[in-house]
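#struct-help
A.M.: can someone run this one for me? Single chain, 278 residues.
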Amino acid sequence: MDKNKILKYAAVFLLIIGIAYFWNKLAPGAIENDIKSDSSEASKTTPTINFKELDKVAVSKALPSVVKEYEGFTVNFNPENKTPNYVAWVLQGNETDGAIGRSNKFWTDTELKGCPDTRDYSRSGYDRGHICPAGEQKWSVEAMHHSFVMANICPQKHELNTGAWKTLEDKERLWAKRDSAIVIVAGPIYDSTDKETIGRNKVRVPSAFFKVLLAPYSSPMRAIGFVYPNMRCDGNMQAYAVSVDEVEKMTGFDFFTALPDDIEDDIESIVPFKDWNK
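D.P.: on it. Structure tokens below:
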């Protein structure tokens, strides 16, 4: 066989091999397998976040607590203090407005041991202070009704309830609209010297209140805390801004536990007030 025929056969053979290779790459399932392979590699480096668990809080087993879910929020109730340890909820941007009016009908949850009576607050010198505000439950009749359960209420000085605390509530609604949704956990802070109680059921009066907020859909993700003494709080709200880590030290709670540890450590250690308030 002469040299030209050998070269011709070799070229045809290489052409057939090339066609077979590219056909295999384009065959049904080949591209899908490549994507799965890439996704598998990505999953090794990209942390998985369970967004449905972001409002969960870890507390000490020694803390008296009963967890109950209401429409729109979850209460961890302390039957000894007769107030919540904390209240947690996710505020969607589209939940900040609604046609449901404020009910103002406080009620006792008889299924919850230690839940006080609204009359415990009468002539006490303290407001029935919402932890999860009624103003964020206008999207549902049931949610509005549930927001007035006494398990969601704490003795709060009127000057704080209608002043700095309300200002923070107004801000968080704006932030929820801006960031699509925010996760909020709030509640009282008790010092060992907080001995004052009110009413026949001896509802314990806290010396301060906390609120921590997480914007899970912002880029980058961010979190911040606020602590207000139970009194008139003058000045800019930035003066009351703290890191989430600081609130955890004050309360003994662990917030946003569903986050990967590295993300949680980063965002809970700083006070990015300007990023929140811009």
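A.M.: thanks! Helices lie at 3-26, 30-45, 141-147, 158-161, 164-179, 244-251, 261-268, 273-277.
D.P.: also worth noting: The first strand starts at residue 57 and ends at 58.
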